[in-house]
């Protein structure tokens, strides 16, 4: 199906209001000559599995992401915080997410680690880089401000369905343009209808309607291209944050993209998972001696005995189509950088905010961020597997078995602290600045908080001690710059996480981890068992106690535990 070229996003780039923030508290850095500093582009996928893209073992057609990997570095031990908004908070601030104020989701709670928005005691990458003379822009999903909605459920649905409007979707002081971004186009909330997104704004101005044939993934890319073309006109470097919604549910994809994968997943979960694992070993991404293919999710349910083969294959085909379309947009971003002579001195990093999602989203039904009908009054189908996924009139997700496949070879998924939830594919590409072997791998233990110190080093920026009268929490990120030079750097000796009870402590190669629905600690030696298949907790009780003590110490100093209420 031929689609009209989108012009909406490029128009709104210029039309949106821009709210400039005060740089109070920042000391201007004395950077090196402007032309020597790289542009920085961060591309963040949403709920994309570790092995989904081609260069990480997947069968999905991602030539542009593959190009970045083949001419850059792939990281094999890079971590996130297991869910959308906590990871975004950590990535943007260089802090653990609780320190940045988002320990759970974006509901406002009266606790330091659970404010539901980036707090005044944190600075963003945009604020720091802007103080060093960078242009700053963002296209895509914000999801780090309070999104409490409307108290009346009927009015909330009217809002979601575009039948009523409000001037803001969260407090304006929490918008991207209040946190260092000169320009912003995208959504303030998290979940979206890809054909007609809720909470879409340009700058601070709500977008009340979208053009015919709108598709949000395309608009995110087209806006990023417009920013690049504008910023390429002067000699200031730029920081561009491209925060994708894809492939987060609902499964919304264009028919021509879905058609490419109509037969790809008819072989079923086990076949695709085994094929991915085999390809990952062949690529040298994993070592079969230390990274086994973990047991599949509920293996007693085989593909052959699955009564819903046709629907399940179509669901995964739609997930693949969403990633395919995202890759096409990344291709346009690369092309724009090349055509404006910016590509050679632009650092592009690509990663996912967490593992693929096991959520069966249609079980939630409409409400909060899920509409019950389209703008023009068509009913949205939530009933399990009643309609074919893809169109705007459906709200579905891939579910746990395909999420298990997407996160090959690891266990579990989004929101859990096992490797399937927290282990992200991560690519760094920078023709002028990366001297390590092209297409090689880095085993540096990295974390999304590391971008702050990495970008500060490259930009000649300074991390502030205070901003607008608020003391700023020190970043514990580790610079990735040595890995760009091919240097073997261990990275983080210790890493921790907590999200809705799911938690882990990693010290060296020892990892203590518990699931969100079970407080039992499990112990793994990642040097020999990266897939977490052999629990050593019973054999190593002293080590379990030691790591649990470290986790509790970290939790106590990082606002993980709510403060005791005063009597």
Proportion of helical residues: 25-40%
Judging from the principal axes of the Cα atoms, what is the shape? globular
Distance from first to last alpha carbon = 65 Å
Structural class category: alpha/beta
Helical run tally: 14
Explain this structure.
With 567 residues, the chain is an alpha/beta fold. It has helices at residues 8-15, 63-70, 84-93, 125-131, 153-160, 216-231, 255-259, 269-283, 309-339, 399-406, 419-422, 450-459, 481-484, 541-557; strands at 39-45, 73-75, 78-79, 135-141, 183-187, 200-202, 205-206, 238-243, 346-352, 426-429, 440-442, 446-447, 466-467, 470-471, 494-499, 502-507, 510-514, 522-525. The strands form four sheets. A ten-stranded mixed beta sheet has the order 7-6-5-4-8-1-9-10-2-11, sandwiched between helices. A hairpin with a 7-residue loop joins strand 17 (510-514) and strand 18.
For this entry, give a set of tags:
single chain; 4-stranded antiparallel beta sheet; 14 helices; 13% strand; disordered N terminus
In short:
This protein is an alpha/beta fold and 567 residues long. Helices cover 27% and strands 13% of the residues.
Helices, strands, pairings?
Layout: H1 8-15, E1 39-45, H2 63-70, E2 73-75, E3 78-79, H3 84-93, H4 125-131, E4 135-141, H5 153-160, E5 183-187, E6 200-202, E7 205-206, H6 216-231, E8 238-243, H7 255-259, H8 269-283, H9 309-339, E9 346-352, H10 399-406, H11 419-422, E10 426-429, E11 440-442, E12 446-447, H12 450-459, E13 466-467, E14 470-471, H13 481-484, E15 494-499, E16 502-507, E17 510-514, E18 522-525, H14 541-557
Parallel strand pairs: 1-8, 1-9, 2-11, 3-12, 4-5, 4-8
Antiparallel strand pairs: 2-10, 5-6, 6-7, 9-10, 13-14, 15-16, 16-17, 17-18
């Amino acid at each position: 199906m031929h689609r009209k070229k989108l012009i909406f996003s490029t128009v709104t780039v210029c039309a949106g209001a821009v709210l400039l923030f005060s740089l109070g508290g920042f000391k201007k850095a004395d950077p090196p000559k402007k032309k020597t500093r790289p542009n920085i582009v961060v591309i963040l996928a949403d709920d994309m599995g570790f092995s989904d893209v081609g260069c990480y073992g997947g069968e999905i057609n991602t030539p542009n992401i593959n190009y970045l990997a083949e001419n850059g570095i792939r990281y094999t031990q890079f971590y996130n915080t297991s869910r959308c908004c906590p990871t975004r908070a950590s990535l943007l601030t260089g802090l653990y997410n609780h320190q940045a104020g988002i320990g759970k989701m974006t509901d406002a709670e009266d606790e330091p680690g659970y404010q539901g928005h980036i707090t005044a005691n944190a600075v963003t990458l945009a604020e720091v880089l802007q103080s060093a003379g960078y242009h700053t822009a963002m296209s895509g999903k914000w999801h780090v401000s309070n999104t409490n909605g409307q108290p009346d459920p009927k009015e909330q649905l009217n809002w979601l369905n575009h039948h009523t409007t409000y001037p803001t979707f969260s407090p304006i002081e929490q918008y991207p343009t209040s946190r260092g971004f000169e320009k912003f186009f995208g959504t303030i909330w998290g979940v979206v209808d890809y054909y007609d997104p809720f909470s879409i704004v340009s700058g601070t101005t709500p977008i009340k309607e979208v053009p015919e044939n709108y598709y949000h993934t395309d608009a995110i890319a087209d806006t990023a291209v417009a920013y690049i073309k504008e910023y390429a006109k002067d000699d200031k470097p730029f920081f561009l944050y491209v925060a994708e919604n894809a492939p987060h549910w609902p499964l919304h994809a264009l028919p021509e993209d879905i058609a490419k994968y109509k037969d790809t997943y008819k072989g079923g979960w086990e076949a695709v998972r085994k094929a991915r694992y085999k390809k990952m070993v062949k690529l040298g991404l994993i070592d079969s001696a230390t990274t086994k293919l973990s047991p599949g999710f509920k293996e007693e349910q085989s593909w052959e005995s699955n009564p819903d083969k046709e629907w399940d294959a179509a669901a995964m085909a739609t997930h693949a189509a969403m990633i395919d379309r995202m890759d096409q947009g990344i291709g346009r971003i690369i092309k724009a950088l090349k055509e404006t002579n910016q590509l050679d001195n632009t650092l592009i990093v690509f990663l996912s905010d967490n593992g693929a999602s096991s959520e069966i989203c249609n079980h939630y039904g409409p409400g909060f961020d899920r509409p019950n009908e389209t703008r023009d009054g068509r009913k949205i189908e939530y009933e399990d597997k009643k309609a074919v996924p893809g169109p705007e009139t459906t709200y579905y997700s891939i579910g746990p078995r395909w999420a298990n496949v997407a996160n090959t070879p690891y266990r579990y998924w989004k929101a859990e602290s096992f490797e399937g939830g927290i282990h992200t594919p991560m690519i760094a590409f920078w023709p002028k600045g990366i001297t390590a072997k092209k297409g090689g791998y880095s085993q540096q233990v990295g974390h999304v908080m590391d971008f702050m110190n990495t970008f500060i080093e490259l930009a000649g920026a300074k991390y502030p001690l205070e901003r607008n009268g608020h003391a700023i929490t020190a970043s514990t990120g580790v610079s990735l710059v040595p890995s760009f030079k091919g240097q073997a750097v261990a990275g983080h000796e210790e890493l921790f996480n907590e999200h809705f009870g799911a938690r882990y402590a990693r010290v060296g190669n020892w990892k203590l981890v518990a699931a969100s629905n079970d407080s039992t600690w499990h112990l793994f030696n990642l040097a020999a068992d990266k897939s977490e298949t052999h629990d050593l907790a019973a054999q190593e009780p002293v080590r379990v106690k030691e790591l649990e003590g470290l986790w509790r110490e970290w939790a106590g100093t990082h606002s993980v535990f709510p403060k005791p209420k005063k009597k």
